[in-house]
Amino acid sequence: MEHLISVFSAVEDPRAANARHDLSEILFIALAGALCGAESCADMAEFGAAKERLLRQVLRLEHGIPSHDTFSRVFRLLDPEAFEAAFRRFMAGIARALGGVVAIDGKALRGAFERGQRTTPLHLVNVWAAEQRLALAQRLAPGRNEVAGALEIIELLSLGGCTVTADALHCHAKMAQAILKRGGAYVLALKENQSALFAEAVARFDDPASAEHFAEHRVKSHDRIEQRRAVVLPAAELAQRHGFPGIQAVARVEALRQPTAKEAVVKVRHFLLSQPLTAERLLQVVRSHWTIENQLHWVLDVVFDEDRARSRKGNGPQNLAILRKLALNLLRADQSKSSIRRKIKRAGWDDDFLLSLFSQMR
After folding, report:
1. Which of 90, 139, 170, 197 qualifies as a FRET site for 32, CA 20 to 30 Å off?
2. What domains can be seen in the chain, in order of their start residue?
3. Taking a C-beta distance cutoff of 8 angstroms, is the pair 152, 170 a contact?
4. What phi and psi values does residue 232 have, to the nearest 5 degrees?
């Protein structure tokens, strides 16, 4: 708990020097509120008033609980890059031990738009540790340019021992070079936007001999049959030929999905690899990538109601998105088997459990 407060204390206060409430205490109350289901600045102030006795056990609260206007003003003015850097510092103890799949994907904050601009909401790039199920970082996509946002956030990460995955939007030489520079490997989805490279990669799988190097998974669940077949082929010469750093192999994953009593649907995807994975490992990596959708983005929208959050002024939307990810990481770090939704309810009902969430990450 002291570590978290010290991390918050390092964030520069954007308010005047005579501000009454301590910034680190404001951020601590906001995070505690988010852990208990607070979705807005008004909710945070209401939470603080209801839990003032508990909060005084860990905070000075020299001037009492901040008003909802104070919470709102702080999040509007706070530098989101500095706040996100504090978020990464807090996660640094875990990040040093990271390995496995790190997924990158964009997400729109659909409620974060100015009046009359519903079609252009704020767009963020999220970084997700699939095996650890932790949000690692976030970056605003400048001008809704997800490619630029992803390149910016990669430059801030230490990726030693990690395999970075991303969809075809990020399959380009600059991204490959950025990942390799930070010590990572990549598995990037390849589509026709890299036309010459895509055509040559696809042609390699026309050789009947490629069928000798494959792995296959077959699963029956949720009233459907799913079957995935992967093939990985060496292709190091493509790197120099197409000016794409680090290519060591190309891969194809063929996915068949057959809902009960319906016609099967087959989807074929291709990938560039900077290390020669086995076909079995490739299937695991590709499968892990999609946890950023169903274990991060889906939870943020359905449990934290992020898509309907209407904070839209100043830096508020970005900063509150960081706060939600920090709350989700703390809830995920708890080892009890309850769902995230139930943990949020328990944190609101059980003060000891709420405090325990802060003490588990050092």
Report:
1. 139
2. 2-91+308-359 (no CATH), 92-297 (3.90.350.10)
3. no
4. -120, 130
